[in-house]
Structure formats: structure tokens, C-alpha cells
Amino acid sequence: MLTLADDLDALTRFGRALADPIRCRILLALREAHAYPSDLADALGVSRTRLSNQLACLRDCGLVVAVPEGRRTRYELADERLGHALDDLRTAVAAVETDRTCPDAADKGCC
After folding, report:
1. Cα(49)–Cα(52) distance, rounded to whole angstroms?
2. Which run of H or of E encompasses 66?
3. CA distances from 55 to 39, 42, 52, 82, 85 (A)
4. Which of 1.10.10.10, 3.30.930.10, 3.40.50.1820, 1.10.357.10 is the CATH number of 14-94?
5. pLDDT for 27-66, tens place per residue?
6. For the chain, which terminal residue's Cβ has fewer other Cβ atoms within 10 angstroms, N or C?
């Protein structure tokens, strides 16, 4: 049975992952299908180095896994429920208030 501390840890890891737009885009891309880093970098329009750093963060958070395939490594969500959670979160937030934007944390000290 999960404790409150376990719940907080899980939500904190998920929140940390969603705090960066590139990590969000990676998660959304992997929700559709597994992918290779070079393909993800091209699709997202980011350098391979930057993508690699973001994938490492997502791996450290336990949200994605690296699967060796010969000389290549493909990435996928660690659990298919994460894709459902992303969809649920996206639609729930959009349904609440569509005319709101989150102020930049540096400007307002929130989020």
C-alpha cells in the first residue's frame, strides 16, 4: 500500500518532468510510440545533446526506459498508464478553464 510520502514522491517526479517543455514534448511523443533519440531530436527540433540530457532526467524520474536494440537504444514510457495519465491531465486542465495561462514562475513566483 502506498503511503502519503510515496504519493508525494510520485507526483513530485511527474511534476518535475512536466516542468520543462521539451520533457513534456518527449513524453507526448513517447505516448504515441517508442522512439530513438536521433528521431526524437529531429522531430522536436532540438540538439541531440539537449535531448539526451532531457531523456536522462526522465529516466532518473522513472518515467521512461531505455531499451537496447543492437547498437541503438529506443525509448518508451516506463508504463503505458503514464500515457493515459498525460491524456487525462491534459483534457482535465483544458476543461477547467481554457482562457487561463500560467504566469511565468520567474515573474509571479508561482507554479
Report:
1. 5
2. strand 64-69
3. 13, 14, 5, 15, 19
4. 1.10.10.10
5. 999 999 999 999 999 999 999 999 999 999 999 999 999 9
6. N
